[in-house]
Design a protein that fits this description.
This is CGNR zinc finger domain-containing protein. Pfam families: ABATE (PF07336), zf-CGNR (PF11706). The protein is mainly alpha-helical. It has a domain of 123 residues: Jann2411-like fold. It has seven helices and four strands. A two-stranded antiparallel sheet has the order 1-2. It has a two-stranded antiparallel sheet with strand order 3-4. The longest helix is centred in the N-terminal third of the chain and has 22 residues. The radius of gyration is 22 Å and the shape is globular.
């Protein structure tokens, strides 16, 4: 199990507008075998999970370690995770969330929680964040080496950088230049 990948998938799940099965299928690239199993009940369950998980990212973004950990622990109590060792490749033993009778929603919730819990333990709770580009409120997982991520996407980063550049340019214009009256030429 690639815990970082599952933690990042939890951010995609939280940012998704789950208005129907097609919307869920859209955020499951490379997992085509799950597509036909997606139901309306999965959508309802995942919408509730989004409301449970959002405060975890908000707390982490605010630097509230206790609330981040408590939020994840509470979610893992509400959604018990059953990991199992996968041996489909004997040279690459790894963990999966058990799926024998789990719905798509239960599988995704289990993966999200196991991925986030492992990431928080390995890299720290401050690696979960909320996009700083206004008006975006998407969440992200910061796996950068220097813990410097502030935006959910390159688009938001670019938009924020352009806005900051324009603000600096506007501030650099001297007040004299701004207040200058138009030049009139004699006739």
């Amino acid at each position: 199990m690639d815990f970082v990948r599952y933690a990042e998938a939890s951010a995609r799940l939280l940012n998704a507008s789950l208005d129907g099965p097609e919307a869920l299928v859209a955020i499951l690239p490379g997992r085509e075998w799950l597509h036909p199993q997606v139901t309306e009940r999965d959508i309802t369950t995942l919408r509730r999970f989004q409301k449970e998980l959002r405060p975890v990212f908000d707390a982490a973004d605010a630097g509230d370690v206790r609330a981040t950990i408590d939020g994840l622990n509470d979610a893992m109590v509400r959604h018990p995770i059953t990991p199992r060792i996968s041996d489909h490749d004997a040279d690459d033993l790894h963990l999966h969330v058990a799926t024998k009778s789990a719905s798509v929603a239960e599988l995704l919730i289990g993966e999200a929680l196991l991925g986030l819990a492992t990431l928080v333990c390995d890299l720290g709770p401050t690696r979960l964040g909320v996009c700083q580009a206004s008006p975006c409120t998407n969440v992200f997982v910061d796996t950068s080496p220097n813990h410097s991520r502030r935006y959910c996407s390159d688009r938001c980063s670019s938009r924020a950088n352009v806005a900051a550049y324009r603000a600096r340019q506007k501030a650099a214009v001297s007040p004299v230049e701004e207040g200058r009256s138009p030049v009139t030429r004699p006739r």
